[in-house]
Write a structure and sequence with these properties.
The longest helix is centred in the last third of the chain and has 22 residues. The relative contact order is 0.16. It is globular, with a radius of gyration of 26 Å. By secondary structure, it is an alpha/beta fold. A hairpin with a 5-residue loop joins β7 and β8. α1 packs parallel to α13, α5 packs across α13 and α10 crosses α11. The strands form five sheets. Strands 1, 4, 5, 6, 7, 8 and 19 form a seven-stranded mixed beta sheet that branches. Strands 10-17-11-12-13 form a five-stranded parallel beta sheet, covered by helices on one side. Strands 14-15-16 form a three-stranded antiparallel beta sheet, with no helix packed on it. It contains 13 helices and 19 strands.
Length: 578
Amino acid sequence: MPLLEETTLPQEHPPTFPVVIIGNGPSGICLSYLLSGHKPYLDTAAVHPNPILYRKLQETKHLSITEQVKTPINSLHIGSQSLRCVMIITCFLQDLEYLSEGLEGRSRNPVAVLFDTLLHPNADFGYEFPPVLQWRRDKKQHIPHLVLGRATPGGAWHAMEGSMLTISLGIWMELPGVNYRDLTNGKHRDVTSDRATPEEISSYYRNYVKLKGLQKNFVDNTYVTSVQKLCRGHEAEGLENRHSDQVDGGVGEGFEGNGVECLNNGGGGALWEVRGYQQVQNNTHVPFSLFAENVVVATGASDSPVRLGGEGEDLPFVFHSISDLGLAVSQRKLDMHSDPVLIVGAGLSAADAVLCACNSHIRVLHVFRKSVDDSDLIFKQLPKTLYPEYHKVYHMMCSQTYTNVAPSSALNRPQAVSIASSVCAKMCPKPQLAAGNMAGNGSVSLFADYTSFPEHSLVSFQSDMKCLLQGNNSLKAFKISMALVLIGTNPNLFFLKGQGQYLGQDPTKPISCTQNPIDIHPYTFECTKEPGLFAMGPLVGDNFVRFLKGGALGIASCLLKRLKKKGTLISNGGNNFI
């Protein structure tokens, strides 16, 4: 990501926003929808299959999910009307903890599990029940905000290979209020049960923003280079008192802040300064600076590939993205006569690369540290009927190991075997898998020129296009045409102090979406070490779209209750702040 080199700023007095969201992927889009006044209510015609949760929802079914309290306000016996108003504001809390009690799901964040079960009841049991929520918009509870993204709304989905299929079902990728199938012509894919392509998903997110009228909150082609916390002092007093005429006006095409309210943060609080630039026509960089009372980091996890840290990893034939393999194939730099492609990793990205190479008749050496019997392998968590292409790769990982296939036949054999029946399942999602012993039968071959190296590690890459592998107490050298190191990605939070490391659950280690996510309050998603700074999505361990929506619910609920408590939002009408 380019750095801000300009030293001058376009505005003497930067605008102040109640909320600035960094990242315009599904996390940022969903949060923008909720902050725009859209509120979830229990659908009175729906019945949730979880009787305990359904009973809790029924207790205050007249309130939205962002307003419910364990003890209904009507049951409070308050003598003074003015005291009652104070109590309503004080009790305007979403008891997400109460609703989340006892729920189980595939997220470590309880609100993510709660919101998922409301949108997709019993999805993990294979059911496709309709949501139990209905959405209503209350313009009086719109919170002005800005969403900054490097490209058009959709985030990293625009950069993914268009022919792949998502891990999640298409309906799990949808956002509140717009049915995924309605925007994709109701496509179905046999055994893959509505898994989608990244192209379809990115189109869905882009159209979602338009359909929901959220464009005014989004500024595209923006690169954030610095986020710093400022203690509110005398220099900000003028900013605190600036007011605009409309709350619901949002933001236009640039950073003028038209229609955006500058909230008083209660005095003595802190502001965040967000700096960066917007890339406009002719690749011109226009710097910007703005203030925010709350900042939400929703930048995802795909910024920086994890590196091996070994010798020769910076050589020009070593890559860290599957797109580089696709580019080499499309440019005809690789074919069946090329030296093998080395693929390092045992996750789904590595499996995608294997499938891409198989589909292009390219020989593969597949190296990974784990045993094929390791219970942590992702393939063991995927149903075979839903993910046949990944189980095809796993079958090859088990049955076509270096110890079971003679090197001369596996690596140098002329390409005489047709692979018509084993074309990459992403192009043909119903492959016919060969039968045989999964533990390692040399006669079983789904793709003849694939060889796996379980429990091996990469020692070095050499300038003469050779790689050195270590495993089974021996060293092995192979000549390759290119190498793909696909062992995961980490977020790049360079715009935060110390790369945001101090925000992690273990502040002595870099932020990692799987090993060391940002430490947050479980029901507000506010960073435990930085009030006013929120994180959501993969940064807090929610790597699937179906769960990151819970972060939007937690953050929106938190901000709404705080603004209610301050009297910033008016519950009885009007467009002005008080």
